[in-house]
Amino acid sequence: MTGFEGFGLWSAVGTIVTVVGGLITPAQIESYISLNVDPWDQNETIDFMEPMGSFGIQTDFGDHVRLFAEHQSSPRQRNDHPGLNHAGVKFLAPISPDTTLYSGLSLNSPIDTNKVDVDAPLLSVGLEDGDEDLKIFVEYLADTSKIEKGRLGIGFKLFFR
């Protein structure tokens, strides 16, 4: 399979809902579309084809707490429905007005694809940089019961508010 052959009806619906949701919700609620790649593609917990995409929604409470929900899957892979769906909290450590270091915990939906091997809450550790509309990020996402088998994603998030 080449290109984005797995980008089907659910991906199109997710994209539209994410954009419209961000535009109609209050400004403090952000939705985003993301594309990222694991340059080493050696993760065992999240086994999607590279690159991976995500749809998300988040809101910050002050400068140090973020609540979020996110769907991750591969636009190149047809058999990853319903993807990885998780929601949780991230603790933020702003470094500058545009750069934030974060770590968080989230719970995975019990209904997921056979491409995801998650048995415990997920740990995320990351760094994001950019303005309010576009951020570049690096994030490590792993099952807390097997942290060494996580996925390192490097990519960008496009925000809608």
**Overall number of domains:** 1
Name given to the CATH architecture: Beta Barrel
Q: Main sheet: which strands, in order across?
A: 1-2-3-4-5-6-7-8
First-residue to last-residue Cα separation: 35 Å
Shape descriptor:
globular
Radius of gyration: 15 Å
Class by alpha and beta content: mainly beta
The CATH class label is: Mainly Beta
Mean pLDDT, nearest integer?
85
Largest sheet: 8 strands, antiparallel, barrel
Count the E strands.
8
Helix fraction bin: under 10%
Spell the H/E element sequence: HEEEEEEEE
Tally of individual helices: 1
Describe what this molecule looks like in 3D.
With 161 residues, the chain is mainly β. It has one domain (9-160): Beta Barrel (Porin). It contains 1 helix and 8 strands, in the order H-E-E-E-E-E-E-E-E. The chain has one helix at 9-24, and strands at residues 29-37, 52-61, 65-73, 84-94, 99-108, 122-130, 134-143, 151-160. Strands 1-2-3-4-5-6-7-8 form an 8-stranded antiparallel beta barrel. The longest helix is centred in the N-terminal third of the chain and has 16 residues, at 9-24. The radius of gyration is 15 Å and the shape is globular. The mean pLDDT is 85.
Task: Outline the secondary-structure elements.
Layout: H1 9-24, E1 29-37, E2 52-61, E3 65-73, E4 84-94, E5 99-108, E6 122-130, E7 134-143, E8 151-160
Antiparallel strand pairs: 1-2, 1-8, 2-3, 3-4, 4-5, 5-6, 6-7, 7-8
